[in-house]
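Lab meeting, item 3. Inverse folding demo.
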């Protein structure tokens, strides 16, 4: 069964240096994008694409969390 949405199926994550460039390449190649490129408050720039079998591919780059998100945690608990 192919993953039809983001709450079912398998998800594989790859940490990369330049998710923007990979996003542009995959879009140009006609790869199905399930979640557009975005910055998440928790500290991740990423997008999610689907391979031909429906496996979700999460392409990520760690970024600093938003100030609002970081304020919920002790400074020593946050990544440096």
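The presenter then showed the designed sequence:
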């Amino acid at each position: 069964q192919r993953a039809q949405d983001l709450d079912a199926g398998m998800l594989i994550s790859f940490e990369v240096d330049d998710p923007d460039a990979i996003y542009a390449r995959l879009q140009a190649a006609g790869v199905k994008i399930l979640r557009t490129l975005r910055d998440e408050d928790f500290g991740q720039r990423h997008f999610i694409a689907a391979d031909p079998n429906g496996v979700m591919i999460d392409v990520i780059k760690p970024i600093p969390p938003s100030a609002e998100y970081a304020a919920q945690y002790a400074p020593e608990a946050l990544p440096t």
